[in-house]
Amino acid sequence: MVESTLASSEIPLVRAHDAVLLDLDGVVYRGALAVEHAAGAIAAVAAAGASPVYVTNNAARPPSVVADQLTSLGIPTDPAHVMTASLAAAAMLRKTLPAGATVLCVGGPGLHEAVGSAGFRVVTSAQERPDAVAQGFGPQVGWAELTEAAYAVAAGARYVATNLDATLPTERGMAVGNGSLVAAVVNATGVRPTSSGKPEAGIFHEAADLVRATRPIAVGDRLDTDLAGARAAGIPGLHVLTGVSQVPDLLVAGAHERPAYLATDLRGLLEVHPAVVRDGEGYRCGDARAIAVGDAWGVVREGTLVPGERLADLTLDELRALCVAVWAAADAGTPVERSALAAVPATVTPAP
């Protein structure tokens, strides 16, 4: 697929794939509530024969806890269909350490459980001379735990982090994430860890392997983790507009994080996705047309160009055409000014 375009599908995506690798926060739920239409769409995915698998950088919670939360939201889930960054870290360690090796775990119960279940001896002190350090987010992690990690890493232990997300979304805003805690150990030792979570490819492959999928599709709301990770893994990515990355973010997306498909929410898995094709100086998707040539860029409506800074209430096909037009201009060496794109006050009109 050409980097500056979107893929198309003449059949609903769920019929083209045998598994759907779903991000959680911003895709399936927001805090304690399910995202609108999520439960119904996931039920339809399962009914169509594709396996839902939940892929999260949250390393603190065991799969059973994640599954219980989803089930309480009306999305019945087996823990065996949950892939956490802690499980991915344990899988990474299995490839380099012998069974029974000692691993110092810094993080929540999910990390300790994943590493222990992988056949390693879990310790919490550098005095145990661990073979490796596995670090994941846990709200209790503080100076003492970070210092034990620093002692062990400085002594030569292999260093693995579940993810390098600098921040963690909470009800009060963006809190300190695992990447910020990892930075303290890096600053003390000069050693950078290998990451097992998104946007690394491994966690997606591990998730697909849970259900022996050969044709998975990944779904996310963050371009820099979910969609960049899908690209790194060679898996088609569907971006939904129910979470972090919105229209302006899509327009400025680099080739390494662009999705294959766009949808307003998870119902996009149940829909066909029209092709975006070249149309003169612009691009067309269905009846929607967009142009990005030099300073002239935006959506053509009733024969008139509506400039990007004046766009509002985009249709999904308009957004598809506009993304491809802007991406193609950037890839051809004549990008639209990033400051102008980032200021686009555009929303997408959702399906009824």
Structural summary, described in words:
It is a single chain. 32% of the residues lie in helices and 22% in strands. It is built from 12 helices and 20 strands. The chain has helices at residues 13-16, 38-47, 63-72, 85-94, 109-117, 143-154, 178-189, 202-210, 223-233, 247-251, 316-331, 338-342; strands at residues 19-22, 29-30, 33-34, 51-56, 82-84, 102-106, 121-123, 132-135, 158-161, 167-170, 173-176, 194-195, 216-220, 237-240, 261-263, 277-279, 282-285, 288-293, 296-301, 304-307. The chain has a 6-stranded parallel β-sheet with strand order 5-4-1-13-14-15, with helices on both faces. A 5-stranded parallel β-sheet has the order 7-6-8-9-12, with helices on both faces. Helix 9 (223-233) links the parallel strand 13 (216-220) and strand 14 (237-240). The two termini are 31 Å apart.
| Rg computed from alpha carbons, rounded to a whole number of angstroms | 22 Å
Q: What is the fold named in CATH at topology level of the largest domain?
A: Rossmann fold
| % residues in beta strands | 15-25%
Report the oligomer: single chain
Which homologous superfamily in CATH is the superfamily of the largest domain? HAD superfamily/HAD-like
Measured between the Cα atoms of the first and last residue, the distance is 31 Å
Averaged pLDDT, please?
Answer: 94
Give the class-level CATH name of the largest domain.
Answer: Alpha Beta
| Spatial sequence of strands, sheet with the most strands | 5-4-1-13-14-15
Count of extended strands: 20
Q: What is the name of the CATH architecture of the largest domain?
A: 3-Layer(aba) Sandwich
Poorly predicted runs: none
Major sheet description: 6 strands, parallel
Helix count equals 12
Q: Which structural class fits the helix and strand makeup?
A: alpha/beta
Which range best describes the helical content: under 10%, 10-25%, 25-40%, 40-55%, 55-70% or over 70%? 25-40%
Shape descriptor: globular
Number of domains: 3
